From TrEMBL:
Source taxon at top rank: Bacteria
Keyword Protein transport: no
GO CC field: bacterial-type flagellum hook; extracellular region
Keyword list, A-Z: Bacterial flagellum, Cell projection, Cilium, Flagellum, Secreted
Any Gene Ontology biological process: bacterial-type flagellum-dependent cell motility
Localization in the cell: Bacterial flagellum; Secreted
Protein name, entry field: Flagellar hook-associated protein 3
Every Flagellin N-terminal domain range: 3-140
Family the entry assigns: Belongs to the bacterial flagellin family.
Positions of transmembrane segments: none
Length: 398
């Protein structure tokens, strides 16, 4: 079989081109540090690398979401800390106001301080997250959730929803509690609150109620104590029951509760005792009740009794509101801890992704250098062979 000169030249050129291509391919791998530079280098590895890169991008998105969630929760935790301090200060002022030695001027001074605390709490309740979104308005976060009514009271115009954010593939986290849950609610485990009727004209006051027997069959019910004065006889009835003689300073035991009464009621006076969740749960309303009674002079015995009863009721309401705020703050702290844990998990996941991606596409330099040297030798051999082949000619022997 005779091989033409053209065939020899074409095969030699093809061999050199192939060797040169392989040589340049290894050089490109060394220059980029990647074994898979083009998908054709290893289609299966390239396909898996794309999926790993996508997983990395998703992981980074959740990491960014956790940063946003942490900022919102940290700001909420700071505000709740300030609110709890404010409620404690208000409770201290109410204890001072309960003293019978204060004059009207003293109570007015106390009311002035209390109003400052009240305004501070309102301002905290209308705090924003720095981007113009109100923290405690639920989904209604474009305007102030707590607004002033014409009579000076505060009304909530947000909704009861809790804003959420997805911080991991399987975790949707509450990042902002609603103002309804924080400032207008009490814990379901809160006890009883007593409140004197606004129309009372006697000077009866109360202390308590205190829980003495949670096993009483009537425990958990609401109670209304009505007073009847007929001549020299004063009686009371509970929830319309049988009339019983009233004794000044004697504790009343009913429904697993104890309520101590003092003073003389007027005919038709009443006191309501109910679970805290069924009474006033609005922190701002508690402030307003306290301010109303402290800013007005208490001259008559009935006015002084109303002052004492309102202070007693408000102190119990402040306690319940404080417990609710602290419970919410504890929940926020738990959520911050969860964000930290998920960050740690995501960091480990990112390391695994990087290791997997490295195994798929990164270059083994020891192997690559050996391959580079081998391809270099192959290219040089192909070039030398071509030089020898092209010099073969019969004309050299004529």
């Amino acid at each position: 079989m005779r091989i033409s000169t053209v065939t020899m030249f074409e095969q030699s050129m093809s061999s050199m081109n192939r060797q040169q291509g392989e040589f340049l391919k290894v050089g490109q791998q060394m220059a980029t540090g990647r074994r898979v530079v083009n998908p054709s280098d290893d289609p299966q590895a390239a396909s898996r690398a794309v999926r790993v890169s996508q997983a990395q991008a998703v992981n980074q998105q959740y990491t960014d979401a956790r940063i946003s969630a942490r900022n919102a929760l940290s700001q909420q935790e700071s505000i709740l800390n300030s609110v709890s301090d404010a409620v404690v200060s208000a409770k201290t002022l109410m204890i001072q106001a309960a003293s019978g030695t204060l004059t009207d001027a003293d109570r007015a001074s106390t009311a002035s301080t209390l109003r400052g605390i009240y305004e501070t709490v309102v301002g905290q309740a209308n705090a924003t997250d720095g981007n113009g979104r109100y923290l405690f308005g639920g989904y209604q976060d474009s305007s102030e959730p707590f607004v002033r009514n014409p009579d000076g009271s505060v009304n909530y115009v947000g909704d009861g929803n809790t804003r959420q954010q997805r911080i991991d593939a399987s975790r949707l986290l509450d990042v902002a509690d609603s103002g309804e849950a924080i400032f207008r609610s009490v814990d379901s485990g809160a006890g009883y609150v007593a409140q004197a009727d606004d129309g009372n004209s006697g000077n009866i006051t109360f202390k308590g109620p205190n829980i003495v027997d949670v096993g009483d069959p009537d425990y958990g019910n609401a109670f209304t104590i009505d007073f009847t004065v007929a001549g020299p006889n004063t009686t009371y009835s509970i929830n319309g029951g049988a009339a019983q003689p009233y004794g000044d300073g004697a504790p009343l035991i009913f429904g697993g509760l104890s309520l101590t009464l003092a003073g003389e009621p007027a005919n038709g006076d009443s006191i309501t005792v109910d679970r805290a969740v069924n009474m006033n749960t609005d922190l701002f309303r508690s402030f307003e009740k306290a301010l109303a009674v402290l800013e007005n002079p208490a001259a008559t015995d009935a006015e002084k009794a109303a002052l004492q009863n309102t202070v007693s009721t408000v102190m119990r309401e402040f306690d319940n509101s404080l417990d609710n705020v602290l419970t919410t703050r504890a929940s926020v702290g738990a959520r911050l801890n969860e964000v930290d844990i998920l960050d740690t998990v995501a960091g480990n996941r990112e390391l695994n992704y990087e290791q997997t991606l490295s195994d798929l596409v990164d270059l083994d330099y020891v192997e690559a250098i050996s391959e580079y040297t081998l391809r270099q030798v192959g290219l040089q051999a192909a070039q030398k062979s071509f030089v020898d082949i092209k010099s073969l000619s019969l004309f050299d022997y004529l």
